[in-house]
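User: Quick one: structure for sequence A, then sequence B.

Assistant: Sequence A:
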Amino acid sequence: MSWTVEQSENTSAVNVNGDTITCTSDSGYGSPINVLYKDPADKNGQYFWQIEIKEIQTPGGGGVSVGLTTDQGFQGGWGLKAMKYLGNLSDGSSLLVSSFGDPIKQGDKIGLLLQLTNADLKLYIFHNDQPLGLAFHTQAPYSKPLYPGKILTIELIYFIYSF
C-alpha cells in the first residue's frame, strides 16, 4: 500500500516516508491538502484502518479530518467528496451531523471500521479507542473501491501522522 497526495501547487510541503505523512507550511494555504492511502476496500467484508495523529501545530487555525473516498471523489482542495469525520460528519460538500465526536487533535487515534455487503455500506468511527457509533450508512448500489484518506485543512500547520 502507498500514499497518494493530491496534485496541486499546495502539495510541495507534503513528505511521504513509508506510512508517515509530514506536512509543513509557514505561509498557509487556506485550502485543504488531501492524501489517500491506496488500500482498497472493494469486496464484501469488514475493513479496519487506524490513523494516529502524532503531532499538530495549527497556530493560524485549520484542522484535520479522516474518512473514506473513491477514485472519482479524490480531488484536490475543497473538491474532495468523501465520508469525513472531523468531530462533525461531512460529505465534502456539507455538514451532515454536528458534534458527532470531539475535534481531532494531537495524539489522537482515529479508527475507521467499514462493513460492505451486497445491500449496504456502514462506516463506524472510533476516537481514541472509544466507539462513536455508526457514522455513515448507504444503501446499495454505492461506489467502490473505497480508500481511507486524510484531509489536511491547512492555514499554518506542522503536521505528522501515520497509519
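Sequence B:
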Amino acid sequence: MSDRRLTDPAAIGLFIDMLASEKGAARNTLAAYGRDLRLVSEALNGGLLTAGPDDLRAWLAGQAGLARASVSRKLSCLRQFFLFAFREGWRRDNPAADLLAPAPAQRLPKSLSRDEVDRLFEAARARLERAPVPANLRLVALMELLYGSGLRATELVSLPRNAIAPGKPYIILKGKGGKERLVPLSGRALAAVEAWRAHVPEEARYLFPSGGKAGHLTRVRLFQLVRELGLEAGVPPERLSPHVLRHAFATHLLDNGADLRALQQMLGHADIATTQIYTHVAETRLVELVNEKHPLANMPSPVDGRKRRG
C-alpha cells in the first residue's frame, strides 16, 4: 500500500515543497494545506499515508459544520496530496479519487420568541396611536402579512392593489417557479389591509406602491422598516428581517400543533423536507401529540398491560 519508510510528516513536507516549487502556491495556501494534512494525520494516529477511503470520508464528515469554502479547501488538499502520493509511488491506489464533500450541516433558521413578536406588534400599535398616518397604517399591514401569513418579502411588496379582496380570507399567490398556492389571511390582516388600502390611489398597480412611482416598495425598504420597528420594540436589529418573521410564522404555527403538510402548502415549499427544518422547535409538542392523540395511546400495552402515557 505505501512506503513504510516514509512518515506522515516527511510526506507532508515533500508535498508542500512540490506545491511551492512546481505550482507556485501562495504562502497562505501552503500553510492551510500543511495544517489540514497534519490534522488528518493526527486524527488517524499517524496513518495518513495508509488511510483508506472510509477513513477520509469519516474525517471529512467531521468537518461538515465548517464553512463551505473551508470544507472545499480540505477536500482539494486531500485529493492533491493522494494524487501526489500515487504518482510518487508511495501508494498503489488513490483513496481520495472518488472523495466527495459531505453534505453541509443544516443551519436552523433564525426565529423570534412569542414575546419578541408581541413587542413588535405592541410597538407598531403604539406608533399608530401616536400618529395615525398612512405610513404607520402601511407598517401595520406589512407586519400582519409577514407574520400572520408567512409571505416572502418579494411576494409581499409585489402584491397587486386588489390581490386581497374585502371579506375574502385568503390570497392566491404565484410564488417561486410560478407555482400558485393559497395563503390564509387572518381577520386582523384583512382589517389592516383595508385600513391601508384606503390611502392607496385606485390607479396604483400595487398594494404597496413606491412613492408616487409605477413600481412597488422595495425589499430593501421593507427590511429597513422592520428593523426600525425592532429598535422601538427592543428587539436586536441584527436578529430581524422580513424572512425572520416568515420563519417565526412557521415555527409558532408548528409549535402550536399545525399540520406539517398544511404548513408546507402555506409556505410554498416544493419539498416537505424544506418545511421539516422547523420541527426543531416542536419536537416535544409532536411527541405529546402522538402520545395523546394516537389510537394506541389509550390501549393496554402488550408488554406490561398498562396504558401507555409516553
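The longest helix spans residues 68-87. Residues 306-310 have pLDDT under 50 and may be disordered.

User: Thanks, that's what I needed.
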